[in-house]
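Database export, one record per block. Field names are fixed; values are copied verbatim from the stored entry.
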Amino acid sequence: MPDVRIASPQGRWILLTTVLGSSMALLDSTVVNIALPRIGRDLDADLAALQWTVNAYMVTLAGLILLGGALGDRFGRRKVFVVGVVWFAVASLLCGIAPNAGVLIAARALQGVGGALLTPGSLALIQASFHPDDRGRAVGLWSGFGGVGAAVGPFVGGWLVDGPGWRWVFLLNVPLALLCVPVALRHVPESGDQRVHGRFDVLGAVLGALALALVTYALIEAGGDGAVVAVSAVAGLTAAVAFVVVERRRPDPMMPTDIFASRQFTAVNLVTLCVYAALGGFFFLAALQLQVVVGYSALAAGTALLPTTVLMLLLSARSGELADRIGPRIPLTVGPLVCAAGMLLMLRVGPGASYVADVLPALMVLGLGMVTLVAPLTATVLGSVDVARAGLASGINNAAARAAGLVAVAALPLLAGMGEEAYREPEAFDVAFGKAMAWCAGRWWWGRSSRRRSYGGRRRAASGRSV
């Protein structure tokens, strides 16, 4: 039984290590959007290249994150976590020195592989190291410090872009890794799961990542060669079907399909797809809108987006407690409606928009909707399956959220009619942004409707603590 106490020096070192590791991936996902306009100008990249700068990372991360967790269980969580941190840092260095958009996109895909190795390990190390009496508090501290990192991420990203340059958005990960790795090797105990057996589901992981990559390519390049796009779309859908078939037939699948026998688990993951599709599309386009159309600097745009994260940091724990008392039905109904209202309020954000009168109200409403929704959503995922499968359920839900975000980043510009040079043309981008926000609001509403149909009026209290 793990026996590290949180008040001990080793306990504090373990917390520091896991927070540093998870913060690398978290910061990277929040600051890159702020840097996109400057990356486009410096590397002479079109909108498709900017989409791939975000999505190359998300494809490999979403496709391999479940495999990364399985590797940690088999070969040692600390070992795989350290490999992931080093891998992520090396890929970040390649991003920072990339001479063109093609190299940057390839390096971002490598970053996603590192993220898939370190992300599952950070929380698993806490679970495996701390005494059961301290585990809940340790998870809370890990979550809280991670929230602080998410809150300062856009501000730090904007400061780096306007100051030393966008390359430092990636290079910042190198010193973080140099601090994290020796602390992990010295102070974090190794752990694994002796019950793990059988082969790794490498075929499932490859098919999943391939399906995401091909569908994303078809969406981003839809305005190009029609034959190539059609072949990519068909191949992507074929890979997705093959993934499901493989997962149903393998004795040790990466994603056991029987877990979806839980109607509530299936419903909540459908909601997750809608929620994080809208969220991923919003933050990708909002950072561009504030800089391209409203005229903000990178630092001002990053700072402007802080209210949503600050509200999440301050109020998510209370939202989770409320959902424990009243059940998930009301939060999962009200939350999407409030978020959709925030998206629609962003339609007021155009040339000459006032931050106080136009931008801030939209972000505050969106943030309150996210507070109402996200913590109960996470808790309901964990509460909808047996405790023994909580880790698997969390991993599937995490992968679903990231896959939804990358598909949204690929699809929204197409749906909104954005051309390859749209981010260089403020007027055209503003018109397309309005259409995209309407689409995002529609996804929130669909998620709310889907949830109501799936639950069929039944209320079930969520168990567990949201992290």
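Remark 1: Residues 450-467 have pLDDT under 50 and may be disordered.
Remark 2: The chain has three domains: 1-199, 202-249, 258-467.
End of record.
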